[in-house]
Amino acid sequence: MSAIAFNNVSLACDAKKLTTGGDDPLLPKLIHAINHASEIEIAVSFVQCSGLNLLFEPLKDAILNGAILKLLTSDYLDITDPVALRELMPLLDRGADIRIYQSDNKQAFHMKSYIFVKTVAEKKEEELIDGCAFIGSNNISKSALTTGHEWCFRHDYLPPRTSREALEFNYIRSAFNEIFAHPLVHKLDHDWISAYLRRRKMMQFVSVDPGSPPEYIEPATPNHIQIEALTALVKSREIGFKRGLVVLATGMGKTWLAAFDVLQLKAKRILFVAHREEILLQAQRTFAQLMPEKSSGFYNAQNRQKGADVLFASVQTIGRENHLQQFSKDHFDYVVVDEFHHASAPVYSNLLAYFNPDFLLGLTATPERTDQSDILCLCDNNLVYERNLTQGIDDKILAPFKYYGIWDESVNYQAIPWRNGRFDPESIDNQFATQKRASHILKKWHQFKQQKTLAFCISVKHADYMAESFNNAGIKAVSVHSKSEIRRNEALTQLQNGTLEVMFSVDLFNEGTDLPALDTILMLRPSNSKILFLQQLGRGLRLHKNKTHLVVLDFIGNHHSFLNKPYALFGSSTIPVLIKKVKEDKLADGCFVNYDIEITQFWKQLAKQQRTTAIEDYQNLYEQLGHRPTASEFLNAYGDLNKVNKQHKSWMALVAAQQQEPEFSDLIENYGDFLLEAVQATAMAKSFKAILLEAFLRLDGFSNPPTLEKLAKDSKLVFDRYPLLKQSELSKNLQHCQSDSVQWLEYWKKNPIKFSCTVNNKTGKQWFKIKDNRLVVNLDVREQDKPALHDAVQELLTLRLLQYSQRPNKVSKAAVNQQENNSLIKREKAIQLAFYPNLKIACGHFKTGDDLEFEYKNAPVGFGHLQADKHFLAKASGNSMDGGKNPVRDGDTLLLEKITPTSAGSLQGLTVAIEKQDEAGDGQCLLRVVKKTADGRYKLVAKNPDYKTIYADEDMQTFARLKGVVR
């Protein structure tokens, strides 16, 4: 085991050896020792949720930082809470050794000991340099660790090894190891907990320990907002929806809502998906509290517990095709996708397209409808319930805030390079790490601050610099990030008890973290995302008994990108509307907003730069969203596409002109008329043509023209996903007829199929035809163009259904709210590209690696327009491709573009990354040139003649093509 940080910090934080409880609680001493120990050994007769809540975060952080945890508890007298045992399972999954002494109420078990050891690596062995053992009356419960009268004596290890204190400490450890290996001790697992639950319910509980009774925790119940949302979910399912999106501002209880809805639907198998482990851990604890009878497990890089009743899955793992196939499509009754604003990323799209649960719930705090247009479609256009930040404050669920927009006077942001929607990281780092800016921030902080401050910084360098500046000014501050020595839970504890005044953070507190005591937030970085801004604001909006309001100090500079923050706060998308709303100050009760006059003057300067062209509108929206706008997002932002059509003929032509990608430009040149006439401008008296095209795309119609029977059947299934639309456009008989019935087939053939194959009187073109009982597109589509054409048609279908829903007297107002968009377009974030350090693209033989860990790096220049959801970076490993005009050498950074089996097109002659699974189920990758043989087989050719050619087999899958080597 590697050495743990803080080797110069003693495990004992108090000179007194006896802890008596009350004014001298054991809890802070335990947390201090946990945060600085390399080995932790705990034995207690019982564990209660109230006590585990106090220790869970420090124990989790300790494990994640390499500490060894051994924990022993018991079922003696049935006092141990089974919910607490369920909540301990994530620690076990991450390496803890957790065991249970099964007394069956025959053998007393009254142990209460906490042992901590610090070691350092000494040659090939670990050397013990510090240790202490707390032994007394404290079990793991809130009262025992805080307010109760509990005596606990600390014995300290003192060198040398032969000292009396050292020998006694080693004896304590040997006694622990002896009971830890007792014949009545069992490994904790979900089966044991389930059996304990069953027999525990049958027994009458009697307490023989009045000083430490099991603590009653009032069962969780939904708040009034959650009750409204639960009712809306029931009504949505009664209508016929099988998916739905719920939008709740940060801090309003999205995870609890999901758990309550699982209960009311009585789902048996549940999948909860998120992109960060912190969110999954918190969700597991929430579900364990509400449904302790269900087993839970994790599906990520380390654990793949497929049999759990409630599975908490990392989308980076389960979203991959080989992992999805480990489950049947209907394996889960209920699927929850948290932070759904990420859902247009490919791994989410794969998952959403694969599973067919009784209900799928998308959860997000995305700020406004414009930002939802590309994700609502993934929930079948069913916006079930929405409550924003203002409503949360008015409903007393969130705290009010006083917001100060402060002019960032020392930084000229217009002089900092701006690329792909982001400031150059190195340049802005240098601008931020200056004494002049730090002094300005410190002055404003002194003017407005309250007691407990969290500051958001742009980088590790920035956070460290700010913490040093504040400490030099006599302010107790720390820098907290993935590389910092101080652990997050320790910093939070110190902030809570007043030891710290300010935490400077980098990305650790954006999502999934509750910080109720925070009363001041410093925003010291620009935000390229409305969602990120609101998430950071939300960190301080939790209610707390000692907090009347939140103070927000936001440093705003002279750059148009800073408009994202007030746009998110006031729900506006243009400067004139923003200025009007700021003057009206129509925020929640108790809230206050003030902007320095320099800021509003700068806004007015920007407003004078009137946009008169569709290109300027497009570029403005690009900056707001942080990715290339889709047609539906443009429509939501500006109301129509008239200017686009007048100035550029079609939406896709405008996109081609702005994106300047040769492949996309070729697509529009070859198929632009089809996209315009057959999709964007086709006549739609009803939604039938759009439904037909949606089914055509679902069946991969460009590559495999579907039979009319299959097309009609799938069209009906598409209609069934939109019950309100179906009710408004089909007769009752057709609504209820089977998708494979003759009645439906004949009706569908006479309506959209027939009309889609009709020659247009104006253009004389027929875009579809029936050939051999199949619907075929009536143009020559090159194989390599089919995936891009598929995506372009899908984007325009979203637009058409959105336009259709907005027509007066076509569908009910309720239907409009339910079906605004209808696309599976992947969001292009155009920020930085993911770099996967563990994904070894082998230039030799297949080599095991994974893409579960990643960081962001600046997109390389010289490769055209790169997209965050399509392109990524990884290292080459080996020399098999070191040859020819464009060699790939060991250690080169590779720029790759993701492809799927259905979107790959022709691979002939391309250099591609191929994946297969080894015997353990882990992924292995290889880089080769693909060539097709005369007998139809594919061979994988190395550029280095020293390496043999490999022939592809059915176990191999192409997942990316090489776009270039980044020198």
Describe the structure.
The protein has 34 helices and 36 strands. It has 967 residues and is of the alpha/beta class. It has 5 domains: 18-202, Endonuclease Chain A (Endonuclease, Chain A, 2-Layer Sandwich); 224-387, Rossmann fold (3-Layer(aba) Sandwich), CATH 3.40.50; 401-608, 3-Layer(aba) Sandwich (Rossmann fold), CATH 3.40.50; 662-818, no CATH class; 833-966, Ribbon (Umud Fragment, subunit A), CATH 2.10.109. Strands 27, 28, 29, 30, 31, 32, 33, 34, 35 and 36 form a 10-stranded mixed sheet that branches. An 8-stranded mixed sheet has the order 1-7-6-5-2-3-4-8, with helices on both faces. The protein is globular. The two termini are 37 Å apart. The model is unreliable at 1-7, 202-212, 808-830 and 918-922 (pLDDT under 50).
Helix share, percent: 25-40%
Low-confidence runs of at least 5 consecutive residues? 1-7, 202-212, 808-830, 918-922
- The CATH superfamily of the largest domain is known as P-loop containing nucleotide triphosphate hydrolases
Structural class: alpha/beta
Quick check: average pLDDT? Answer: 84
Name of the CATH class of the largest domain: Alpha Beta
| Count of separate DSSP helical elements | 34
Global shape = globular
The fraction of residues assigned to DSSP E strands is: 15-25%
The CATH topology name of the largest domain reads: Rossmann fold
Alpha carbon gyration radius? 30 Å
- The CATH architecture of the largest domain: 3-Layer(aba) Sandwich
